Amino acid sequence: MNVSSVLVAGGRWRFFSLRLGSSLFQALHNSCCRKKSTAPKKITPDIAFDDKNTKESGNALHKLFSSEQQASILHVLNTASNKELEAFKLLRGRKSINIIQHREKFGPFQNLESLMAVPLFQYKTTVQVCNSILCLETGGKKRKSQENRLLRKLIKPEIERERLKAVNSIVSVVFGTRRIAWAHLDRKLAVLDWQHSECCRLMKGTYVSSLYLEEISSVISKMPKADFYVLEKTGLSLQNSTLFPVLLHLHIMEAMLYVLLNTTFSQGGQHQVLSMNRNAVGKHFELMVRDTRTSGKELVKQFLLDSVLKEEPRVFFPPDKIVHYRQMFSSTERNRIEELYDSLLQAVAFYELVVFDTEP
Question: What is the pTM of this model?
Fold first, then answer.
């Protein structure tokens, strides 16, 4: 007997002798050896299995997002530069480069599933990236909508954002019952011109149109050219009948200034004169006490002082004019010419709230 095999049946030991060369023993031997040698190893799926999984993952990916969401994600993937892609935290480093290279080699992504063909993009990573893009895009749209609502409340009429971003200088105009003041500032918040003019004749008599035209035309002739002219929009209520004469005067002044300064409107239909909410300016500089705006005299005084003492002041007064402006401020400080102070504050607020805040 070359080899013995032991089998148990019915509680009794039985011995069978098998030759090594027999086919039955060889089959059992090979089977046992194969199981022993391969048992610890993990089964690696073949190519066909991978393709099936990828297809199933792709189908699942397709179901996760609506057609509108998919279009939004694909727009970013197909148009964003490397720098813009890196704005998404999950795409920083090699992933953004791989997207650009894949796009250049194979063309735009046709669907979300094609993103999984990019190196370093497995199913889970792709889902996270898509969600990240949607979150940032949604947040950007909300911020843009909020900014637009803010601008509509802040300034009227509504102006294209591109024009606001490109502004180089503005003239801020504030008028009252006795005077008109204006401040000419560039986008570096440098004061190019700042003065006021008395208009004492306007509220005497019966609001003669020709007199308003003469007075306001005279003032406008002194104003410098600018991209926009910003007029203060007061919040006086029509319900108080005692204020009617003042409101009538202010509305006439606003209408006259709007027509005489808005030279580009008749040419191309573009507004050059804007109205800015007075209380919004007050809130920006924390000058409001409930619904009442307090004087901005001390704030303007601080601007003048900072322009001399600080290397980077909030408002810059040119050295050749700083002495003149300080003397002008001192001479009007006792009389509290609020229009003069307000014209400067309105100009600064316009840049900080409308121009700078809309830049990317």
Answer: 0.60
Domain extent listing, the chain: 3-33, 61-154, 158-358
- Give the other-Cβ count within 10 Å of 325's Cβ: 20
Least confidently predicted of 59-63, 93-97, 148-152, 286-290 = 148-152
Superfamily in which the 61-154 domain is placed by CATH:
AF1531-like domain (1.10.150.280)
Name the nearest CA neighbour of 126 among 136, 111, 139. Answer: 111
Residue 60 has pLDDT above 80, yes or no: no
Which structure tokens are listed for 312? 């980077």
Give the ranges where the chain is alpha helix by DSSP (H).
23-38, 47-64, 67-79, 82-85, 94-106, 123-154, 161-165, 209-220, 244-261, 265-268, 278-284, 297-309, 319-333, 338-349
Other CB atoms within a 10 A radius of the CB of residue 286 amount to 9
Hey, is 17 helix, strand or coil? strand
